[in-house]
Design brief:
mainly beta, Jelly Rolls, four-stranded antiparallel beta sheet, 8 strands
Length: 86
Amino acid sequence: EGAGVEALSTASEVLVAANPDRQYLYVKNLDSTILVSLGLGETAVTSRGIVLAGGEKWEMPSHAIYTGAIHIVSASGTPSVAWVEY
């Protein structure tokens, strides 16, 4: 689920919607040249957040799974991001 999702350039958008039953979440930046930021919360994020360089991944700790929405933003370009959620 979510493989190859493109985030809008310099705009925040929802990558993963709120899911009260979420048990696992994994996000990877598939773009080798663009930094992306992830923001936890229901509102849009800026360039601050969990920063993923090209090829980097972020996995939600199983002991503190976050069930709210996750937003993504990039400073430039249109990155490709994959995620797995269940």
